[in-house]
């Protein structure tokens, strides 16, 4: 009887362990399935790429076969806007879903991505994502120990603001621009602001003065020669490999330096554009080099079995720089202007699991829409974002249900503002308003503010004034306190007044 009792106890113990293992394995498999169901997110941004600088937008010279392929397979946004006409503010909008004027990133090298802002990597990290940032940062400095790039120096403590403070697990970043080939080097004898032909063997060079840094604040010294887009992608792919090996969904923010000046193309791409002048062969060459790395990324995702459930977004941070061969394809003005040529940029998105066939849309969209869209896809409650969002979810657009944008897009930079809805655009410089019918006059050739019924311009003026007031309230810390506001000692820049000249 005693032996029977012992045998029964052992049997019950074995069954209990077996039951636990079955339950545990079921839980693990369920967890893995849940993680797999969450789409990977890749946000790619070019730097100073004009609307007309891609093959799919009709450029007759520059070859971008992999971007053209994305345009055919995914969503081609014909009215995609950078949130600002320069780089830093647009980048702040991508990570926060907010207009950059709310956080004091008024212009390039002004303000920082404040620690109080709720960012995309912070939100996605809570959802089980691993997060990485690669390429340009431009939202604060990366060192307090030495001179680096535009603002990094030992005495500048208040603008120290690396990716590690904003939810990233991995980083390989520069504070600002670098040459697009041999990014750490510049020739001694033939340096030009716009760019140069690549360094030859034995040629004398010196440090460009902008460095790559990792997530721990260490300067990176290896694998920095050759095409800068390839140098960046060489860090992105191992990050993706580790995430897929660990079965973790991932966020990879990939901000190329191309084609920001100085533009330098490698030997292979010099040959492709050998009939062009110095500026164009380097400008076009570095864009094609970047395009090739995007193709390399997509091929790698397919190899890892991660292509179907990965959304890739592509855009530029603003229009083309003056002095380089970039084109707007007829849109008015360029970088630094809130006319269309300064803010309307190439915009693409592929996500094979959800976007089964390619289509184009003329609905206006903006970089601030990224965060609300991804929050909607992941069913993240808007309360988790805490702060006022300016972007909207584009999920209904991706599903073919959105017929027009539900609210206008506001823009501010220095002494300019604009307010764009589905048809009209209100624009002002130094407080002088103009009105354009963008649907029928996309090149902004006819100011119709005196011809259009007063209710159109009046309603839009009311909207832009309320928008500016809301941005100022955020800037002054009325959402999350004044710690960063007081620390940075920035002054509000009223975009309806003339911009003060430097003394």
What descriptive keywords fit this protein?
503 residues; Alkaline Phosphatase, subunit A; single chain; 31% helix; globular; alpha/beta
In the CATH hierarchy, what is the architecture of the largest domain at level 2? Answer: 3-Layer(aba) Sandwich
Unreliable residue stretches? 4-9, 11-34
Order of SSEs: HEHEEHHEEEEEHEHHEHEEEHHEEEEHH
CATH class of the largest domain: Alpha Beta
Tell me the overall shape: globular
- Would you report the number of β strands? 17
- Report, as a whole number of angstroms, the end-to-end distance: 101 Å
Averaged pLDDT: 93
Describe this entry's structure for a reader.
Strand 16 and strand 17 form a beta hairpin. The protein is built from twelve helices and 17 strands. It is an alpha/beta fold and 503 residues long. The strands form four sheets. A nine-stranded mixed β-sheet has the order 8-5-4-9-1-10-11-2-12, with helices on both faces. Strands 14-15-16-17 form a four-stranded antiparallel β-sheet, covered by helices on one side.
Describe the secondary-structure layout.
Elements: H1 2-37, E1 40-46, H2 65-73, E2 75-77, E3 80-81, H3 87-96, H4 120-126, E4 130-136, E5 170-174, E6 185-187, E7 205-207, E8 213-214, H5 228-245, E9 250-255, H6 267-272, H7 278-303, E10 310-316, H8 340-343, E11 347-350, E12 359-361, E13 365-366, H9 370-377, H10 395-398, E14 409-413, E15 416-420, E16 424-429, E17 432-437, H11 454-475, H12 483-488
Helix pairs in contact: 5-7
């Amino acid at each position: 009887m005693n032996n029977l009792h012992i045998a029964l106890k052992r049997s019950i113990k074995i069954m209990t362990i077996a039951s636990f293992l079955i339950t545990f394995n079921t839980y693990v498999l369920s967890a893995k399935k849940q993680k797999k169901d969450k789409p990977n997110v890749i946000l790619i941004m070019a730097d100073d790429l004009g609307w007309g600088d891609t093959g799919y937008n009709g450029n007759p010279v520059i070859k971008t076969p992999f971007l053209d392929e994305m345009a055919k397979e995914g969503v081609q946004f014909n009215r995609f806007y950078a949130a600002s006409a320069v780089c830093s503010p647009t980048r702040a909008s991508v990570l926060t879903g907010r207009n950059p004027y709310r956080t004091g990133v008024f212009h390039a090298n002004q303000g920082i991505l404040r620690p109080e802002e709720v960012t995309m990597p912070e939100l996605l990290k809570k959802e089980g994502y691993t997060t990485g940032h690669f390429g340009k940062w431009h939202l604060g400095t990366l060192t307090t120990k030495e001179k680096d790039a535009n603002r990094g120096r030992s005495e500048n403590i208040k603008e120290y603001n690396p990716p590690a403070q904003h939810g990233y697990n991995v980083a390989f970043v520069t504070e600002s621009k670098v040459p697009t080939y041999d990014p750490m080097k510049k020739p001694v004898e033939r340096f030009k602001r716009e760019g140069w032909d690549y360094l030859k063997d034995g040629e004398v060079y010196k440090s460009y003065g902008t460095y790559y840094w990792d997530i721990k604040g260490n300067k990176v010294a290896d694998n920095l020669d050759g095409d800068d887009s390839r140098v960046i992608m060489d860090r992105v792919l191992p990050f993706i490999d580790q995430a897929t090996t660990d079965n973790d969904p991932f966020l990879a923010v990939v901000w190329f330096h191309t084609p920001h000046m100085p533009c330098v193309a490698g030997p292979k791409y010099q040959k492709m554009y050998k009939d062009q002048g110095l500026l164009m062969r380097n400008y076009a060459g570095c864009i094609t080099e970047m395009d090739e790395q995007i193709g390399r990324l997509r091929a790698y995702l397919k190899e890892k079995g991660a292509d179907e459930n990965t959304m890739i977004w592509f855009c530029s941070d603003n229009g083309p720089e003056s002095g380089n061969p970039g084109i707007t394809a007829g849109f008015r003005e360029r970088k630094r202007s809130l006319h269309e040529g300064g803010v309307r940029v190439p915009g693409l998105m592929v996500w094979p699991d959800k976007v089964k066939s390619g289509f184009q849309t003329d609905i206006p969209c903006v970089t601030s829409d990224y965060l609300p869209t991804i929050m909607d896809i992941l069913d993240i409650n808007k309360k988790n974002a805490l702060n006022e969002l300016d972007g909207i979810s584009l999920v209904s657009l991706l599903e073919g249900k959105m017929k027009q944008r539900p609210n206008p897009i506001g823009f501010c930079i220095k002494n300019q503002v604009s307010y764009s809805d589905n048809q009209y655009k209100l624009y002002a410089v130094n407080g002088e308003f103009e009105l354009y019918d963008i649907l029928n006059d996309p090149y902004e050739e006819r100011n119709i503010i005196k011809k259009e019924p007063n209710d159109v311009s009046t309603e839009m003026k009311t909207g832009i004034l309320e928008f500016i007031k809301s941005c100022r309230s955020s800037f002054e810390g009325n959402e999350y306190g004044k710690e960063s506001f007081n620390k940075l000692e920035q002054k509000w820049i009223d975009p309806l007044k003339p911009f003060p000249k430097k003394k």
